[in-house]
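Replying to the earlier thread about multi-chain prediction with a worked example.

Input:
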Amino acid sequence: MNVRNVYDIEPKDAGMAGVRIRVAIGRDEGAPNFVMRYFDVAPGRSTADHAHAWEHEVYVARGRGAVVTRDGATPIRSGDTVYVAPNEQHHFENRGEEPLEFICVVPHTD
Amino acid sequence: MNVRNVYDIEPKDAGMAGVRIRVAIGRDEGAPNFVMRYFDVAPGRSTADHAHAWEHEVYVARGRGAVVTRDGATPIRSGDTVYVAPNEQHHFENRGEEPLEFICVVPHTD
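Result:
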């Protein structure tokens, strides 16, 4: 068993301007099936628009913004859960004035 | 893609006094690998002490309490992530005065 506050985890540059990622629970903690990551997106910034073969399960911890797919933009805010299906093109935008922070769980892909 | 606020999901009795569960993302949403559930535990209450073959990946959204294993009690609070390994005996206790609310992600077990 392992407890860590997300803010005690060193953030990594996610390769996207204004976006940082913390790997909260993954292979280093012994997790056999999936990875819990914590993203923060600065105001006015967004994650890269992309698609991949695995799903996202997201919980918005702080802030507000939108998840954007080929079907358009859907508002998101603290307390929302977001399911992104495999192969669905998507990105997350911060449309607020504070950081947009969310948990994003994915299967191991390596 | 599907967005739902956790408080818009109907809570279910979890079979434990003072504990409710909302299934935020699961098979009904098409999720192929794992399930995101949202628990709330009333002040002074706790989840059942148990162990199972799958892991828990937890993010504490609100409140404070403890996760208790055979090694003792570890405090938890909003913003903490908790990894519980497969087969590790554990339960969650609300030791605060507001609800203890947390995301708990598990693999499909059916």
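The first strand of chain B starts at residue 2 and ends at 5.

Feel free to reuse this layout for your own posts.
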